[in-house]
Structure formats: structure tokens, C-alpha cells
Amino acid sequence: MSYAAYKMMHWPTGIQHCASGFITHSRVGSASHIASLPADDLDSDWPSAAAPREVGPVPNLVVGAANVLEVLHGNIESMAALCIGGADGGRRRDSIILIFRDAKVSVLEFDDSIHGLRTSSMHCFEGPEWLHLKRGRESFARGPFVKVDPQGRCAGVLVYGLQMIILKAAEAGGLVGDDNAFTTDGAISARIESSYIISLRDLEMKHVKDFIFIHGYIEPVMVILHEQELTWAGRVSWKHHTCMISALSISTTLKQHPLIWSATNLPHDAYKLLAVPSPIGGVLVIGANTIHYQSQSASCVLALLFLLITDRTDGFDFSQEMTRSSFSVELDAANATWLSDDVAMLSAKTGELLLLTLVFDG
């Protein structure tokens, strides 16, 4: 008689990935709501409310620490919540998308019968039939990572450096022939219907740094930050502003991805994209010294290290039209999130918290 045993010797002590979504319940019919605090519990500078009011349903917080998510084995490389938003009147639950090396995708949903997570679909792009995706390489500087369309129509997974996997979400929420997808409260979870691959190399992209889905389009639009020719700080006197962004309109039905707009001459130290919510739309390109706003019809830039930029002539395109911040800060290795539709909060590597306000004049 043979058997297998597994024992966790050292449990993880830190959280590496997190996402929020309506996993165990849908947006409607939820008993959990956030109520505003009474006026006595608030700072005196805040306007007092006549009566407590409910903010809305509370989503679940999903965390991943090393190889622990209770149901799967393997270190999680990236994680996102497939959020359907207001589809079906808000009665559809969100699902969890987990990415593992080198190109494995698992989609999890909450099952009321076991009061836990179960796998709704798995996608693997490894093995002999997928060796052509690696183009002869065995290791890559960056692991796979996933981003989700704000309206939940699809998700994108970047694997093997320049291979983009498009995961199309099922419009009805369930798999083909799945008539028992409804849960006890009548809600169904978001699911993946099909997938296909876009070769970014065929689109003349060489070094992809980040990508994101943006708001305000009928079809999903993916903005990709990439660099045509590599450079570094000691070489910017000869080659600088090597980054650019390209916006692709993703048609999951026709499996087409035409280029609808692009922006060039972005700094070589640009490394992160942040989608701007509606009604403004567009995307923020975050670099170590500047923040660029780009959309299909407008663009602007904010200089964060003004003294450094004006003193150096080794590649920074100084212009009188460049908006300058009143203080200096370095934003390399920063994180950002939205507090409202036009206010973003950024955390710098020094521990500073910064508020960035977008002034929208129409």
C-alpha cells in the first residue's frame, strides 16, 4: 500500500497578492453593508451628517501568501478578481483568477454547497504543443501577470515576455451546457468561456513593461507600455525617451486587436500604467521623475523632480508647458490606487503618501 503525505513546515508570514471582489455573495441581496459613522465619532473638520447612511455592499478581500490559498499548490505569480460590475443587475458574483509559472491559469468561484472555493476552469499553455511560444528560451526575467477589463468582459495574461493570453468571459456567466450554475441566492459567478493568444512580437513590440485595460470604450481596450530599444541611466545622454504606449481594441468574438491610438517619446524610466476611471478615462504613465496622462484626444505631463530635470541636459525634454510639482519626490517602485474618479493616492518608496488630483475641464 502506498500513500502520499504533505506537511507545511514553514507557513508564509507575509501577503504577496491581494484583490477585492464579490466572491461569496453578489452585489445585490448582500446582508453586509458599510454604515457611515455617527457625527460624534468623526473629526470636527468633517461635516456632520443628519443620519447614518449605508455606503454599499462589502466585497471580499482575497489574499495570497506564497503557496497558500487553501485549495491550490504552487506559488502564486499574479492574482486578480474577474468583476462583472453591473451586469445582470448586479446579481453575478466575481471570480478569482490565479496565475502560476510559467503559463498556468486557474479560475476559482465560491460554491455554496461546500462553503468554499472550487475551480471553474483551468488553462495551461505549457508542454510540447506550446514550446513555440518560448522561442527557444527557458527562463524569463519577469513572471506572468494578469489584468482584468473593468467591465469584466475579458482578462489578459502576459506570459513568456511577449505572449498575451486573452481570456474571454462568458456572457451568461456559466459554461456551455452548465444549467446548474445558479447558487442558493440565484447568483452565478463570472466564468471564462474561451481563450486565445496574441503574439506581441508580431505587433513589433520588443520589451513590454506593463499593460492595463482602460475605461470608456464599447469594446475592451488594452494599453501596453513597451520599449522599442533598451537604455539605462548611464546612456540617456545618447538615447532617451525610449518608451511608448499602444492601445489595442480587443474583439474577443472576432479575435482581432487593431491599434486605435498610441503615444511615443515617453521617458525610459516609465514602468507602470494606471487606468483613469470614467468619465475622464485615459491612462496615467508613472515614471521615476514624471507622471504622464495620455488618452486618445489629450495628453499632459507633471514633473516631479524639477531641479534635477532643469539641471540636466542628458535626455529630459524640458518644456515651459510641463506642469511642475511644488515639491520633489521619486516615484520609482511606487504603488497607486484611486480614492475617487479624479483623485489617486500614491505611495513612494520612502513611505510618503501623495494625493494626485486630475483637473478635468471637458
3D architecture notes:
InterPro entries: Beta-prop_RSE1/DDB1/CPSF1_1st, RSE1/DDB1/CFT1, WD40/YVTN_repeat-like_dom_sf. This is RSE1/DDB1/CPSF1 first beta-propeller domain-containing protein. Residues 72-361 form the RSE1/DDB1/CPSF1 first beta-propeller domain. Pfam families: Beta-prop_RSE1_1st. It contains one helix and 24 strands. By secondary structure, it is mainly β. A hairpin with a 4-residue loop joins strand 22 and strand 23. The longest helix is centred in the C-terminal third of the chain and has 6 residues, at 306-311. Mean pLDDT is 82; it is low at 39-44, 46-51, 173-177 and 307-316. It is globular, with a radius of gyration of 22 Å. 32% of the residues are buried. Helices cover 2% and strands 38% of the residues.
- Number of strand elements: 24
| Beta-strand residue fraction | 35-45%
Overall pLDDT? 82
List low-confidence stretches.
Answer: 39-44, 46-51, 173-177, 307-316
- Total helical elements: 1
Order of helices and strands: EEEEEEEEEEEEEEEEEEEEHEEEE
Which overall shape is indicated by the principal axes computed on the Cα atoms?
globular
Question: Helix fraction?
Answer: under 10%
Physical arrangement of strands within the biggest beta sheet: 17-18-19-20-21
Largest sheet: 5 strands, mixed
- Could you say which structural class the secondary elements and strand pairing correspond to? mainly beta
Query: Which radius of gyration do the C-alpha atoms yield?
Result: 22 Å
Q: State the distance separating the first and last CA atoms.
A: 73 Å
